[in-house]
Amino acid sequence: MKVIASSLRKGNVVDMDGKLYVVLTAQNFHPGKGTPVTQVDMRRISDGVKVSERWRTTEQVEKATVDEREYDYLYEDGEGFHFMEPETYEQLAVSADVVGDGKVWLTEGARVFLKTFEGVAIAIEYPQKVTVEIVETEPVVKGQTASSSYKPAVASNGVRVMVPPHIGPGTRVVVNTEDSSYVERAKD
């Protein structure tokens, strides 16, 4: 189906010259003079080659229809990362280049959205917020005020997070998966 270029988002699949591309980033630029453009970085699904395209924001682009469903993460092995569809129990192996840097957010049973095209996973969407346990953090320096300063900490999945001074090792916190930022103390 045809859509305007400015409506493209990360994870969308575009059909260009009979080849499929998954959108990695999409930005709209509105210069003071001239036509607004959409800058899109994409990865070709067939061979993994990355390409950059620039379209006028009103230009029509062919968007491929993909199957988007929730999957539960199971485990990782030599074949890749294994996910299971919760209703049909159908399993799917996803390659490491599709999972990318987001593998730190994959814990057993984690629910993610997988986009598949003809049975092959092409993109993955992680939950926006994940609860992790802080395993290591610096001690509080006397005189630091709670509102102004954050201290570095390491979560159970290895991610570095800046947390408020009152958070210590063993505390469970909610983290934003997009930028690894502290959201709040976990309520559980």
From TrEMBL:
Signal peptide range: none
Pfam families: EFP, EFP_N, Elong-fact-P_C
Keywords: Cytoplasm, Elongation factor, Protein biosynthesis
Major site of localization recorded for this protein: cytoplasm
Ranges of residues in domain Translation elongation factor P/YeiP central: 68-122
Stretches assigned to the Elongation factor P C-terminal domain: 130-185
This protein's record includes keyword Cytoplasm: yes
Domain of life: Bacteria
Subcellular location(s) per record: Cytoplasm
An MF annotation (GO) of this entry: translation elongation factor activity
Functional pathway: Protein biosynthesis; polypeptide chain elongation
Protein's job: Involved in peptide bond synthesis. Stimulates efficient translation and peptide-bond synthesis on native or reconstituted 70S ribosomes in vitro. Probably functions indirectly by altering the affinity of the ribosome for aminoacyl-tRNA, thus increasing their reactivity as acceptors for peptidyl transferase.
Family that this chain belongs to: Belongs to the elongation factor P family.
Record-given protein name: Elongation factor P
Species this protein is from: Paracoccus pacificus
Lineage of the organism: Bacteria, Pseudomonadati, Pseudomonadota, Alphaproteobacteria, Rhodobacterales
